[in-house]
Task: structure prediction
Amino acid sequence: MKYWNPKLVAVLASLFLFVSMGVAAPSTDDLLSSGRMNDVVTSLTSHQDAESLNLLSRAYFAMENWDAAVKYGERAVQLDPNNARYHLWLGREYGRKAGDSKGLAAASNAKKAKSEFERAVQLDPSNVAARLDLAQYYTEAPGIMGGGVDKARDQATQVAKYDPGNAHLILARVADKQKQYAEAEAEFRAAIKQAKNPADMWLQFADFYRQQGRLDDMQAAVHFAVVAPNKPADAYFDAGRELYLAGRDYTDALQYLQKYLASGALVESAPSFRVHYLIGQLREKMGQSAAAASEYQASLNLASGFAPARTALGRVQ
Result:
């Protein structure tokens, strides 16, 4: 008798339920957005098409498994070398792998990230996300690694054609890098005024203030973000994260994260397993070990490969 993979059985049972109810089964994109990484990995591991491999790489990216993310991201690009989105994600995967590498390996992965971002922009000049990531690389990397603030400013000029708010964001980051903090503030305020999503720009501004140690200003920026009209639900996630990183207003941070989970409008950049992990970190900081353990377990139930949650659970049990 052939034994069934219990995870596969669970996925198939879930899909059968959707079909029997006359409801469309969730797509892999939906699974990524909801944070159900175990289901994504189970459903896609045997697939060999470029789109499935790209989605699988993004699942591993979300779980901070950079080696697996790069492995599947490279295969997606090999199969469809003219897809700008695949190059963008592979660039991100190389970039995060570089951050966890040392010496020559870090330099090699960083250069690969730069090449992938540049290729994404070449293939799709209107891809603002790719230009933002490329500009961030140019801003942070030394000249010997192909960086340079003049290159970043050129990306701002190009982005301005499609999204003036994000063009100012690039210039704010450049000014920050050059320690021209008053100019950076002015650019952040210009970004907020022209942004398609002002709440996101307020949160970028909050992050700048936190890095500067201006925590009262950081809290004010977070407040403006969460009261902004027509904000996307993930603004609550970013607001909660900023407060956690600043060590301020843990109660408000919890409320924001819970409101995001309850919104039903989850996005890939803030999947539910990471929300549960962050709530666990907050609970742990508040001395609520049992509640923290419950959140870490909830995170692992969705993404068993997420090592930070497993480490945290072992710490509080």
In short: The radius of gyration is 20 Å. The chain has a mean pLDDT of 91.
